Every structure is written in C-alpha cells, then in structure tokens.
Amino acid sequence: MKTIKTTLLLLLVTTFAINSNSYCKEHNKKENKAHWGYSGEHGPDNWGKMKPEYKLCENGISQSPIDFNSPISASLIKINFNYKPTNLNIINNGHTIQVNYTNGSFAVIDGKKYSLLQFHFHTPSEHTVSGEHYDMELHLVHKNKEGKLAVVGVFIKIGKANKYFDNIITHIPKHKSEAKQYDEMINVNSLLPKNKSYFHYFGSLTTPPCTEGVNWSVLTTPIEISKEQYQKFHSIIGNNNRPVQPINNRFVLISK
User: Fold this and answer.
1) Contact 209/108 with Cβ under 8 angstroms?
2) CA end-to-end span of the chain
3) How far apart are CA 4 and CA 232, in angstroms?
4) C-alpha of 70 from chain center
5) Nearest CA among 130, 134, 195, 189 for reference residue 159
6) CA gyration radius for the chain?
C-alpha cells in the first residue's frame, strides 16, 4: 500500500512539472509575440494590439512623431542646455543605440529643469518637415522632479564627417547587449547645432507604451555626419522610425 501511494505521489509531481513546463513555454511564446518592433506583425501598426498597456499607441490622441507643416511663429523661451562630459555608457537594446548619461546634466525647458537620462537615435528621422524625412534623428530624453518627460530632438543629415559622432560609432555593439562603459568621455553638447531655434508641441513617446504628455522640442537646424558614419549605424540597426501620427487638435509652435 505504501508503495502504491509513493508511486501515485511521484506521478502527480511529474504531471505537475510537465504541465508547469508547458505553461512556461507557452507563456514565453506569448511574451515573445508581444515583443514590439518596426516591421511586420510586430510593427507600429500593431503596437496597440499587442498588450493592454500599449493601447495608447492605437487610441491616443496626442501621439508622436508628427509632421511640422506651417508651424506658428512664437516668442518661445530659449532652451538652456547644461550638459557635462560623462564616460561613454552605450547599449544596443535591439531597437536603437542608446547612450546613458550620469546624473548632473540637465536642460531648462519652458523654465523648468529636466535632468538628462539618455540619448538615442532613429533612422530615418521620426519627425518630418513638410513631409520630408532627414536621414536620422537624435532624441535626448529628460525627466523633471515631478516625473514629467521632455525630449529634445536633433535632425541629422548626411554631409561632412562628424568627429564627435565617431566616438559613438566606434563603440556601437553589433548585437543586442547589456550596457557597456568605456574610459572615453563624451559630451552631448557636441552633437547640438549652433542654431538652437526649435519646433515645440506636446506629444508622446514614439515607442511603446506611447505615453502621452511628453514635452517635445525639436531643433530646426540639423547636424551632419558622413555617409560612411550613417552606413555603419544603419547596417547594425536598420530602419527604426515610427510613422508620423495625426496632429488632431494640437498646434505646433516655432521659436522666432
């Protein structure tokens, strides 16, 4: 009798383990299916259907990016950039190349201080000007003490080689990886154009979960990189831009 009970117990444990393993595999499959990207069934058109927390990607009314067409000229407050040098900390997260920034660098936007968290790149540009894309776009992501986000965009076009961009290109991980830190110092001030005039509007993150309420300032003047620099970036990341979204009832300002 004791042998029968032991056998039954072993059968129950084995069955439970098999079922648990099957559940985990199925759960992981679902998780993988819900992993967003930039093409096919995982592309921007389907982001809002992939997870409940991504619903704003489909139903939001203040989404980014947008097209800058006929902006309203206004006396906007000048953005005060206060970026300091930091060790290069770079990651290929599978969606873009991101450079993480240490504490202490910030920008004053609309009179409020926003700490710089990181910057990353999109190719081609996500925002457009009168329907036209630039070759790339740099996004500098900031957060203030209330947890509100502000993103500064910088257009990039193919032209002259950019020695400051070289330091990033040289260390781009070819495959998805953890963040890596190097001894080289970088100051993102070097990737800003001299002319700091900008487009201004309120929108969202351009990646899931497409959170709205983001304060956007996109500089009107592009910086340049060489064709070779562009090709090296694009060969690793490919196209990673979300299409422009409806403006709806929003208005876009441009600094005088």
Assistant:
1) no
2) 90
3) 67
4) 26
5) 134
6) 23
Bridge partners of 18? none
Q: How many CB atoms lie within 10 A of CB 24?
A: 10
Read off the amino acid at residue 178. Answer: E
State both tokens at 12. 């129950």
* Alpha-carbon gap, residue 125 to 162, rounded angstroms: 18
Whole-number pLDDT of residue 34: 61
Distance (Å, rounded) from C-alpha 46 to C-alpha 37?
10
Place of tokens 């001030």: 189
| pLDDT band of 106, cuts 50, 70, 90 | very high
212-225 and 198-204 strand pairing: antiparallel
CATH architecture of the domain covering 51-255: Roll (3.10)
Which residue spans within 131-235 are E strands per DSSP?
A: 136-143, 149-158, 180-186, 198-204, 212-225
Tell me the C-alpha distance between 44 and 12, whole Å. Answer: 45
Whether pTM exceeds 0.85: yes
Q: Which two tokens stand for residue 176?
A: 């998805």
**pLDDT, tens digit, 9 for 90 and up, residues 202-235:** 999 999 999 999 999 999 999 999 999 999 999 9
- Please tell me whether residue 117 adopts helix, strand or coil conformation: strand
Closest CA to 98 of 204, 172, 191: 172
Helix or strand holding residue 49 (H, E): helix 47-50
What pLDDT digit, counting tens, does each position of 77-87 carry? Answer: 999 999 999 99
User: What does the pLDDT read at residue 8?
Assistant: 38
In the chain, what percentage of residues exceed pLDDT 70? 87
Question: 128-129 and 253-255: which strand pairing?
Answer: unpaired
